[in-house]
Amino acid sequence: MVEGVFHIDSGLGFAIILAIILLFTKVLGLVFRRIGLPQVLGYIIAGIIIGPAIFGELCGFSLIGLNKANGTASYKALFLLNGTGEDGVFSMGTDGLAIFSKIGVLLLMFSTGLETNLQELKKTGLAATLIACAGVAVPMVLGVLISLPFANLGLGTENIYNCIFIGAILTATSVAITVSVLKELGKISSKLGTTIVSAAIIDDIIGIVVLSVVTGIAKAGDAGDLTGFAWFKAQWWGTVIMIIAFFVVAIGIGFGVAYLFKWMDKKWPSTHRIPIFSLVACFFYSWLAEEVFGVADITGAFLAGVVLSTSHRASEYTDKKIEVNAYTMFGPVFFANIGISNISFLGLNGMIFLFAFLAVLMGLIGKIVGCGAVAKGFKYGWRESGIAGVGMMARGEVALIVTATALDAGLPEPFMIMTVLLILVSSVLTPILLKVLYSKEKPDADNASDGGNPHEEITEATVSESN
Q: Cα(76)–Cα(158) distance, rounded to whole angstroms?
């Protein structure tokens, strides 16, 4: 039983929830940035602190509480989000938090798409593409294999889709930390640095597509009494066809959308109507993906960003405007809501932490071995191959977004702990290992590595906090 001093069931009540979330995420985000860790970790920790995970479930009093219909925790909250009642109807409070979180994740993925420079990806060629493929395939296979013995945690062969979700989570790459280190060392414009950045972008594209396929098939259940189009979408092969159809339709529409975007930029450059139009495209693609074709909505948002990124100047302007909303309001709410709603210490046990440790280990090894081996195949030296593997090792927002999508598709909530630990460990190890590897570089090799064409401006625009 959860009791509340103030029951949040109105728009004004939800405003105070937003105030608390924004205050704590900003403070914790600055603290984590000061100690050299990603701000998103601070956002999640802020959600854990103000939510019921620690002070509510373990201490009996929480700043923000959740009155879940199927909840087992008993505590008192200062502000209680009423949640669902016996009739299953959402209150204004909980529904508002869910809506803000959904908008946040869509804007984050849309911003990532806007920062994708297709021309730069073409320049990096086959090496970046194959490194990215290995960076997806090896961690995913290792993630599935490590999940099979843990049937008692909701994995194993009887829950094979959950095992595949674990593998999909391990595929995500965040290059923001890598870029900051490469810039600090003066290697961001080198051939290897450009390859790593491009490979990380391609890695996320492949990972999101894989997630969409797995999510779509996992949601395709028994046809039952369904008929017609609903019956078709309920079949696994129908789901695959719908996913392919979505990309065909979305890319086809994308040519017209991109042309209109460029025309608007030429006629009304640097005006607010361009970002507004881009938001229309983002939300339409998201709705089209999820509701019509059964593809993950984040795939639609990401693809909309890629479509609009073809107009480089306009997409940069748009991204700056989108980031104001994404990182000021909606993004922090999304990450804090992970800590508030999806993390609970009551259901955790030694097996969960054992699995999380093994999964994190496989996630790190998978990137280093997979990406490093491909780099070695392209005649990079052992040290450069190690840099390529370590550079692809860091995780961030995309891993959290993939995990949240997997939770919606049926993955048990305790596995969010795995992702949080993966981000924490990889964020600490990546800059340390990169600096150690570059410290062993010979002066001649250093000069040679910087012989490529400088793309610092492009790579800075390509990677931001949203990655």
A: 38
Backbone angles phi, psi at 36, to 5 degrees: 85, 20
pLDDT at 131: 92
Considering only CA atoms, give the Rg of the chain: 22
DSSP state of 52: S
Q: Name, in order, each residue with C-beta under 8 angstroms of 179's C-beta and a sequence gap of 6 or more.
A: 188, 197, 459, 460, 463
- Cut 0.70: pTM above it: yes
Question: Which amino acid is residue 361, in one-letter code?
Answer: L
Res 451 pLDDT > 50: no
CB atoms closer than 10 angstroms to residue 464: 16
Tell me: pLDDT of 447 over 60.
Answer: no
DSSP secondary structure, 170-192, as one string: HH----HHHHHHHHHHT-TTSHH
Helix residue spans in 75-159 (DSSP H): 92-114, 118-147
Among 439, 459, 416, 441, which Cα is nearest to 165's? 416
Residue 467 and residue 449: Cα distance in Å, rounded?
25
The pLDDT of 154-167, averaged and rounded, is: 90
Note the pLDDT tens digit of each residue in 192-240. Answer: 887 887 888 788 778 878 877 787 777 665 555 556 766 776 676 777 7
Secondary structure in 3-state letters for 352-414: HHHHHHHHHHHHHHHHHHHHHHHHHHCCCCHHHHHHHHHHCCCCCHHHHHHHHHHHHCCCCHH
**Do 208 and 189 form a contact (C-beta atoms < 8 A)?**
no
Give one DSSP letter per residue of 11-28, joined into a string.
HHHHHHHHHHHHHHHHHH
Confirm if 385 and 372 have CB atoms less than 8 A apart: yes
Mean pLDDT, all residues of the chain:
80
DSSP symbol at 415 = G
* Total count of residues recorded for the chain: 467
Q: Which residue has the tokens 């280093």?
A: 368
| 261: CB partners within 8 A, 6+ apart | 274, 277, 278, 281, 307, 308, 310, 311, 314
Cα distance between residue 36 and residue 30, in whole Å: 10
